[in-house]
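Re-run with default settings, no changes from the original entry. Doing this only to confirm the output is reproducible before filing.
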Amino acid sequence: MSAMKRKKDAKEDSVTTEQPQAEPEGAAVLPTEVLSEEEQAASIEDRILELEKELEAERTQALRVLADFQNFRRRSEEQRAETASRAVQEFVADLLPILDNFERALASAADSRSFDGLVAGVELILRQLRELLQKHGVEPIEAVGQPFDPNLHDAAMRVEDAEVDENTVVEELQRGYTMDGRVIRPAMVKVATRP
């Protein structure tokens, strides 16, 4: 083989074996125009100012929402207090005629010195008072003859009684009441036990 042919073959080998080198991964592609440091600083300053304005707007909005919520809560509490006050005023207004009747009954009994008249007046007032309580949802708890229920009754004593079932209420010492289905005061009772 001649020296020329070897040179030519070596040249062809070098051409075919050389491949273009790929850029390493993650290498940044530089824009054709590179910003100067001053332009970059100005761009960053503009972005910071923009973000500060957005933050201030969000902060202002959050303060408004908080103030609105506090005002709502205050108004709700005032309305609740006003509603409770009106309910008590309504009840007291309904109670005043009963108070008037007590005063009349006592005055009448003092003038006539009649025990029977006083008893009749007090019975009338008691009926009025019960009607008023019923109007406002207050009901007495039935106790005597009922099975003892700790949700409705408060057992003050146990008494031996062979005539009724065990744990039956045999006597009511103090009447209990419910209001709209909730116990206001349980009935104080005596409960039967086996002798």
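The radius of gyration is 48 Å. Strands lie at 138-140, 153-160, 169-174, 177-179, 182-185, 187-193.
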